[in-house]
Amino acid sequence: MSDFPSVPLPATEFLESWFPGAFASAPAPPGAEEVDVRLGILLQGEGGGEWVLHLDHGMLRVEAGSREEAAFTYVQSVADWRGALWEGRGGAVGEGAAQFFKPGAPAANAGQLGGAPPASALSEMEKLDGLIRMVVTGGEGGDWSVAFKLGPGAIPPEPTTSVRITAEDALALQKGELDPMAAFMGGKMQVTGDMTLMMQMQAIQMQAMAEAQARG
């Protein structure tokens, strides 16, 4: 397995050179051998761009270009992307989001917001349509955010669903010290917009995790 770069790399070098090599040398994600799906990456700002990660029955190809046909797209500013990968920004949500870019990393647990979805879940997410944006406040380095576009198509100018949580509460969720429903009802996790979309995404992820555990 390739060691993760100790210093930040330009997005192009990271995604087109380091990432495919690291993926090839790491254990395949659970369910990857059974899917043929495209994952989009959109990094906004200087040094950013669009990429398509084509996961084809356990093999990965990365190409620069439009992600509009991707089943699922990771959307973030270049600054927040680097912050999660190399600066520990975003707290538990940033840690989960960084797993997208660390082949062979352990799967996110059920309470971790922003975790990379199982490979087998991506095909089901293609049937959805919307943009979920997560904002983490109160963490080291200031506010931090990441968004996920579900289904193909253009990125909406505004999120369909927004989730706002403090770094402290996100960590409590990850550790199982805070129940997600209690966090929502108590105002610790503020959700605005289409709540159904977020529930659909979580249901797909949980089903894929359950199937992976049954196979394992």
Please, could you describe this protein's structure?
The protein has 216 residues and is of the alpha+beta class. The chain has one domain (11-215). Helices cover 35% and strands 25% of the residues. It is built from seven helices and eight strands. α2 packs across α3 (91-98). The protein is globular and about 45 Å long. The two termini are 21 Å apart. The model has no long low-confidence stretch (mean pLDDT 87).
- The parts where pLDDT drops under 50 for at least 5 residues are none
Radius of gyration: 16 Å
Biggest sheet architecture: 8 strands, mixed
Portion in beta strands: 25-35%
Q: Roughly what is the average pLDDT, rounded to an integer?
A: 87
Structural category is alpha+beta
Number of helices: 7
Cα-to-Cα separation, first versus last residue? 21 Å
What is the helix content?
Answer: 25-40%
Approximate shape: globular
The run of helices and strands is: HEEEEHHHEEEHHEH
> How many β-strand runs?
8
Write out the strand line-up for the largest beta sheet, numbering strands in chain order. 3-2-1-4-6-5-7-8
Please indicate the count of domains. 1
